[in-house]
Each structure stands twice: as structure tokens, then as C-alpha cells.
Write the C-alpha cells for this entry.
Amino acid sequence: MITATQGVKLTSQCESCGGELVRDVGQFIDRGRLWWGVEGRCQACPNAWCEMDTGPAPEDIRQALLTKHGPARLHLADKEASLVPVLLALREMQHLSLGEARLMAADLMEVGLVGTSVEMVYLAEGLRNRSVTVTITSSPT
Ligand SMILES: [Zn+2]
């Protein structure tokens, strides 16, 4: 499913007491930026924390979201479109070098980019702001 907010609950063992630790992890878009967050709470002791930041989510959070919700694929609607706005948007959003942006743009042109739904919605917004037409589909797993 393609959504701009995704979350998943993970359970593990609390390092302090051995009880059940529940972590609410997720990605979302706020004020044009990509965010990730973790809220952890032990069911048995006061161990609790909250963490949030912008940018790419830690890999364990990405994997948990991909496992739970499935990946999304972003395509360029017009394969003949100019690469310039695509490169500008990718560099601006992902803080890439020109070389990295070119590689990413080539993937986008050819097979599409795959990531979590929130990541693809975020990229799609940036590209649409530069008048690049894109589509997002649920990627077959
Ligand atoms: Zn505990």
C-alpha cells in the first residue's frame, strides 16, 4: 500500500530487566522532510526512550517497514523527460553528488527506484515540485 506514513511495532527483550520491550518504529513526511522515529517502552520496567531524526531511516527500521508493508516502486511517467529537473530534485532531496544523482536518475529512468512507501512518496513530491511526472506502484515482492 502506498502511504506517506508507515509504522510497525517490534518486540524484543529489554536489556535492563529481560521483560518485553515494545518499539514503535516508523517513517513519515513532515513539512517537506523525510523523518523516522522510534518510541521504545518496556512493559515491565521504566526503561523507555524516544528518538527521531530527518533523513534516511536506520536500516533495521527500513527493513521492518519493508517486511510489514512491502516495497514501493517509483517510475518516471515520461521516459523522454529531461533529466535536468530530475537531477536537481534528487541532489536537493538526497544530498547527492552529481555522479550519485546521475546513477539514481538512470535507475529511475530504466527500472524505477524501490524503497519504503514513505521514501518513494517523499521523492515523488520533490520531483513533482520540479514538474517531473512520476507514478508509484506497489512493487511485487
Ligand atoms: Zn525492562
